[in-house]
Write a structure and sequence with these properties.
By secondary structure, the chain is α/β, with parallel strands linked by helices. It folds into two domains: about 80 residues, Threonyl-tRNA Synthetase, Chain A, domain 2 (2-Layer Sandwich); about 290 residues, 3-Layer(aba) Sandwich (Rossmann fold), CATH 3.40.50. The protein is built from 13 helices and 15 strands. Strands 5, 6, 7, 8, 9, 10, 11, 12, 13, 14 and 15 form an eleven-stranded mixed β-sheet that branches. A four-stranded antiparallel β-sheet has the order 1-2-4-3. Helix 1 packs across helix 3 and helix 6 runs parallel beside helix 7. The two termini are about 15 Å apart.
Length: about 400
């Protein structure tokens, strides 16, 4: 039985369930994603959304699925069911579809409509990103995807990565990327020295009115870092969050529970974008997203995320980067190109503390890199492309 026949049969059954409960309706298209199928439901004018959503269990029973989600999205009612065999959204094939990626833009994954989702850190409404979710939600994997995609699409002279990971489990695999300055900072002393250097660099850039190259500071387990590092770490991170935008310094921080009590109200207020994965409940969803009824408490985990910005919510499936793919990307990025980091010596700021940062080659132009990684050249396309899975 083909997938299209199965989907058509599911659409018929949804209509039958609603008709049995005296809700005349029809399925008017939808979208197939690697994790779920989303049906657009057209009903008579005046139909109550709550009456339809109350039949979610009956719909799931009729379709033989573990669950069905019924919700309003703008002016439409949608019925969403999980696919029987979910597929991951792999980063490298997703990047193959992109010919133009704006500078300092990360590839996050695929949205509900099947479009690749990009996030430009230098946009006025972005600057810093907070990634939240429970264990198993995929927040650290999403952070690795975000950082690796930045390295893939920006040369070393355009972008540098600074990794702070006290446990060294989350960002350790990224240490071989040539964009990483001075390895992974994993001790309280190294973190404090690194933040001190960042503060001085920020002040130098402010004085010289420069903001390049972009410095992306990635922090894994932000709340734990603040608890172990104490007030000096919290004050330094808060200052960078408040003033780093103009200096081209951007924070990407991961945490399980981003409450103001744990990470500080001033710091939390300076993360205009939140990427939220599965959380434990409604209260945790509100803490993580900053808004009520975000739906984060209903996410399925394993890369199922919402992007929250200016109280708007966009659901997406995070792209997956396996260990072998990451090793391949690091090897290709290290294999050729320029090696200059002259910007560090152009001002009076001192070098990064601890051991000397090793000099590594920057990537060749993106087309050549993707040709080698994926085996063929990129086809012309806009940076948001419709997935070929619409109903």
């Amino acid at each position: 039985m083909g997938r299209r026949h199965t989907v058509n049969m599911q659409a018929d059954r949804i209509e039958q369930v609603l008709a049995q409960h005296k809700i005349p309706s029809r399925i008017d298209g939808g979208t197939i994603t690697p994790r779920f199928i989303q049906f657009k439901l057209a009903t008579e004018l005046g139909t109550r959304v709550s009456k339809v959503s109350a039949l979610a269990e009956e719909i799931a029973l009729a379709l033989g699925t573990r669950e069905a989600r019924v919700y309003r999205d703008r002016g439409e009612i949608k019925v969403e069911i999980p696919v029987e065999r979910p597929r991951p959204v792999r980063l490298l094939p997703l990047c193959k579809r992109l010919t133009v990626v704006p500078p300092v833009s990360a590839v996050l994954g695929m949205d509900e409509q099947g479009f690749p989702l990009l996030l430009r850190l230098t946009a006025p409404d972005v600057a810093h990103v907070l990634i939240a979710g429970t264990t198993g939600s995929g927040k650290t994997a999403l952070a690795r995807t975000l950082l690796t995609s930045l390295a893939m699409h920006n040369c070393v002279g355009q972008l540098q990565l600074i990794l702070i990971d006290p446990k060294r489990r989350g960002f350790g695999p990224l240490a071989d990327l040539p964009h990483v300055l001075n390895g992974v900072q994993d001790t309280p002393q190294a973190v404090l020295a690194c933040l001190g250097w960042l503060t001085r660099e920020m002040e130098r850039r402010d004085a010289d009115a420069v903001h390049t190259p972009a410095l992306v500071v990635a922090v894994d387990e932000l709340a734990d870092l603040i608890q172990t590092g104490g007030k000096p770490v919290q004050e330094s991170l808060t200052r960078i969050a408040q003033r780093g935008r103009e200096a081209g310094i951007h924070l990407v921080a991961c945490t399980q529970k981003p409450t103001a009590a744990l990470i500080g109200g001033a710091m939390k207020a300076n993360f205009p974008v939140q990427l939220v994965g599965a959380v434990a409940g409604v209260d945790e969803a509100r803490y993580a997203s900053g808004i009520s009824n975000s739906g984060a408490d209903k996410l399925a985990g394993k890369g199922d995320f919402i992007l929250v910005a200016r109280s708007s919510v966009l659901r997406f499936q995070a792209a997956w980067l396996g260990p072998q793919d990451l090793a391949l990307v690091a090897q290709e990025l290290r294999s050729g190109g320029r090696t200059s980091r002259r910007w560090q010596n152009e001002g009076q700021v001192d070098d990064l503390p601890t051991q000397q940062a090793h000099t590594l080659p920057s990537p060749q132009p993106q087309r050549s890199l993707m040709d080698r990684l994926l085996g063929r050249s990129l086809s012309p396309a806009h940076h948001l492309i419709q997935e070929g899975g619409s109903l």
